Amino acid sequence: MSHVINISDTIERLATRRLSGLPLSEVIDALPAAVYTTDAAGRIDLYNQAAIDLWGREPDPSNELWCGSWRLFSTDGTPLPHDECPMARALKLGQAIRGEEAIAERPDGSRVHFLAHPTPLLDDMGKVLGAVNMLVDVTAQKQLQAELKTRVEQLELVSELGLVALASEDLEAVFDQAVVQLSKGLKVELVKVLELLPDEDNLILRSGVGWEDGLVGKATVGAGPQSQAGFTLMSDRPVVVTNLQTEKRFNGPRLLLDHGVVSGLSVIIRGQKEVAYGVLGAHCRNRRDFTLHDIHLMQSVANILAQAIERRNLRTHQNMLVREVSHRVKNSLSVIQAIARQSGSSATSVEDFTHRFQQRLNALAVSHDMLTCSDGSGVGLRQLTQQILGNQADSHCLELDIDDLQLSSTGTQSLTMVFHELLTNALKYGALSCNTGKLVVKGQLEGIGATSLYYLTWTESGGPPVSEPSQHGFGSKLISAILQQQCKGELQVDWRSEGLLLKCALPTTSITSDV
């Protein structure tokens, strides 16, 4: 090591120069490094305080040979017998040994890395009289080297995982790679990816390493403050647990307690707009103080997972839009034909027909624009229904009774898609496909604030007889996906013979807020 002073000359001078009348014990004790001497048989006869500090004990010269260490180990961790230590070999060979590394274990279990410099003391005839040894503590340097090696490995881990996340289309494979790499990088037994379920009351173990078979994909933990994951979500910052048994901020969930977890670290997997996908956690069965570097590594991996999730969601959204565009193209001609038929049936003249037909085509264009090109500001619900429905059905066929709401951009797009699908079905097969049909659309707001509900009712009557289709098409599936999954609403669809009846109770915030 370039940063360790070469003390070979010091050892040689100590072994050969005259001490100008000073006792050797005083000279040795004055040295800051650990120094001791032995006789020719290896019995320790002199040692300084620095040697006692390094060994963590004071040796018994009457029965201890070669070295005062409690236990010795080679650099590979294997036990090193005292009679094979550097001092013992130097005495046997009659030759100095320079800078040989070994590890001393103290009685308290702590270990010290040191470089040994044993030098035999010879008489004029070359006979070994004893030896002097200087031990240089290099524990700090070894720890620094290990820390640097760990950080390099962790940087490589993040880089490799980032490449996997960019190249892979399989989100589960990215999760699985992340937990394995984190287990190695942090040297922990258990790592998990928890996904926040739609009800936001629980998280499910989506991926993990070290857990009992059968738990991944099934085990859940509460998202409330009683669990480490839930506390992490609520505290909005990394959470470090040194000892789960004595933790006061929250109770350890069964998932952790059943696996003997003692220490842990958890961070939020956060997407765009501060939306939390879930929690990334690392745990071990021994007590550990996680460092700031460990936290940064965890957060870096969580950020990579968040980006992978966002990319997956974007691909899903793009695929839905492609399917939607294809569906719209296929429906466009039939919708226009239905508009022309309805306009012609009630028109009093060619000019009247042209006027009605043009208005309805414009409304159809508006609905497409609202679907694909929302300006982000949103519109009023009453305005939305009037634009989509009002110009595509005669006044005697349509009744609107809407409690107005200012929709968010997301709500505008969602309800545009729903109304368009319902209108298309009504024009092609339902109440608006004939002159005798009628459509009633009602919207009623109940409650105040975040818990309020908005009740939408779509009622058709007077049209051709209706029956539930044997197979639901893309339009029906899209309506269900938007109202139930996206808006978290309760949907009821009744295929009455006299006409379709659709009722939906929507959380008001699902259509008025983009958060």
Keywords:
515 residues, Beta-Lactamase, Heat Shock Protein 90, 7-stranded antiparallel β-sheet, 6-stranded antiparallel β-sheet, 18 strands
List the helices and strands and how they pair.
Elements: H1 8-16, H2 24-30, E1 34-39, E2 44-47, H3 49-55, E3 71-73, H4 86-93, E4 100-105, E5 111-116, E6 119-122, E7 128-137, H5 139-167, H6 171-186, E8 190-196, E9 202-209, E10 220-222, H7 228-235, E11 239-241, H8 254-257, E12 263-270, E13 276-284, H9 292-346, H10 350-372, H11 381-390, E14 398-402, H12 409-428, E15 438-446, E16 453-461, H13 474-486, E17 490-496, E18 499-507, H14 509-512
Parallel strand pairs: 14-15
Antiparallel strand pairs: 1-2, 1-7, 3-4, 4-5, 5-7, 6-7, 8-9, 8-13, 9-10, 11-12, 12-13, 15-16, 16-18, 17-18
Q: Could you please describe the fold and organization of this structure?
A:
This protein has 515 residues and is of the alpha+beta class. The chain has 3 domains: 8-137, Beta-Lactamase; 143-312, Beta-Lactamase, CATH 3.30.450.40; 347-512, Histidine kinase-like ATPase, C-terminal domain (Heat Shock Protein 90), CATH 3.30.565.10. It has 14 helices and 18 strands. Strands 1, 2, 3, 4, 5, 6 and 7 form a 7-stranded antiparallel β-sheet that branches. Strands 10-9-8-13-12-11 form a 6-stranded antiparallel β-sheet, sandwiched between helices. It has a 5-stranded mixed β-sheet with strand order 14-15-16-18-17. The longest helix has 55 residues, at 292-346. The protein is rod-shaped.
Low-confidence stretches: 1-8, 14-19
The total number of structural domains is 3
Cα-atom Rg, whole angstroms?
39 Å
Summing up helix and strand content along with how strands pair, one would put the structural category as alpha+beta
CATH topology annotation of the largest domain? Beta-Lactamase
Roughly what is the average pLDDT, rounded to an integer?
A: 84
Helix content: 40-55%
The 3D shape can be described as: rod-shaped
State the major sheet: 7 strands, antiparallel
Number of helices: 14
